[in-house]
């Protein structure tokens, strides 16, 4: 029995004053695990846990912290949330699970690999968190370092400065800091986390303009205007803007230009050989408007590019 199964999960039910429930009926296939996977920052992410058949998220919402339990059911997705942000989390759960992600107009263009990948993943949707700073801060941490380094820093800082998730959440589930709380983390703690001054300074610049960043959500599902707004902050480039908008806005056309792995993955999947950023964009051009959908389909297909070539050097700045 999972934590969620131990309590009532019917729409509108409540086991305590802070709990809010709903049942999302998407009207089509939605794979909860693959749709929410971009939110997971490594297998030990304190803000993302899987217990049995339930995905647990610790969210920092505009109205406060929330624990969210999401379960896959036959044709429906029960969602329960606890904490001051519970009502907000439940209200926005359908968008989190891909409502509004319109695949109309997406055509595999006769490409056999993509046709098979789409057939294999009918429930893949692009999520939209409706929280910009919460997606931007970890993206900044991931700039120009290995995932292992970035995820280690994320774990360290959440455990030091996050908030224990409310409600009957799994042990160790932690809500990330608010923008103000990120801003108050001292420089030596960023150093202990392995985040050098360049990245921590970028986080500081971003959280100082948090309200303006959140207002970009009114501009729709991303695009060039949102990207330009994000990149107006020194230290944020195309890659960070794309990694953020993919999650916060549900941008379907923001491939991660500048990524160490993505261009080669796209190249090998679509042509059988590696390409650079320009080559990736050229390959993805027939799917303009849906380019991130193509990348997600490739990533979720199980395809792996050949494992050879130089690896990104792990640099530890904590001893400097």
TrEMBL record:
Signal peptide: none
Gene3D superfamilies membership: Hypothetical protein, domain 2 (1.10.340.30)
Protein keywords: DNA damage, DNA repair
InterPro entries: Alkylbase_DNA_Glycosylase/TA, DNA_glycosylase
PANTHER family from the UniProt entry: DNA GLYCOSYLASE, DNA-3-METHYLADENINE GLYCOSYLASE
Protein name (database record): DNA-3-methyladenine glycosylase 2 family protein
Classification of source organism: Bacteria, Bacillati, Actinomycetota, Actinomycetes, Micrococcales
């Amino acid at each position: 029995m999972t934590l969620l199964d131990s309590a009532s999960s019917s729409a509108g039910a409540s086991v305590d004053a802070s709990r809010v429930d709903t049942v999302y009926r998407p009207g089509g296939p939605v794979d909860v695990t693959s749709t929410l996977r971009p939110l997971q920052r490594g297998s030990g992410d304190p803000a993302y846990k899987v217990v049995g058949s339930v995905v647990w998220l610790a969210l920092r919402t505009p109205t406060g912290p929330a624990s969210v339990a999401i379960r896959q059911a036959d044709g429906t997705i029960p969602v329960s949330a606890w904490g001051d942000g519970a009502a907000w989390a439940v209200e926005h759960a359908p968008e989190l699970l891909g409502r509004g992600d319109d695949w109309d107009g997406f055509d595999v263009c006769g490409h056999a690999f993509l046709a098979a990948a789409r057939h294999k993943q009918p429930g893949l949707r692009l999520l939209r968190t409706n929280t910009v700073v919460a997606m931007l801060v970890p993206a900044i941490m991931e700039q120009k370092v290995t995932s292992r380094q970035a995820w280690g820093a994320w774990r360290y800082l959440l455990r030091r400065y996050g908030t224990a998730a409310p409600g009957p959440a799994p042990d160790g589930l932690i809500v990330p800091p608010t923008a103000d709380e990120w801003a108050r983390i001292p420089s030596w703690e960023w150093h202990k986390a392995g985040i050098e001054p360049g990245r921590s300074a970028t986080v500081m610049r971003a959280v100082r303009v948090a309200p303006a960043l959140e207002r970009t959500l009114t501009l729709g599902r991303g695009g060039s205007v949102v990207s330009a707004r994000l990149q107006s902050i020194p230290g944020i480039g195309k890659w960070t803007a794309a990694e953020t908008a993919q999650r916060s806005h549900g941008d379907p056309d923001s491939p991660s230009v500048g990524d160490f792995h993505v261009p080669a993955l796209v190249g090998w999947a679509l042509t059988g050989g590696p390409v650079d950023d320009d080559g990736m964009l050229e390959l993805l051009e027939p799917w303009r408007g849906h380019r991130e959908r193509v990348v997600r389909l490739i990533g979720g297909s199980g395809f792996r590019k050949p494992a050879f070539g130089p690896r990104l050097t792990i640099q530890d700045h904590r001893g400097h």
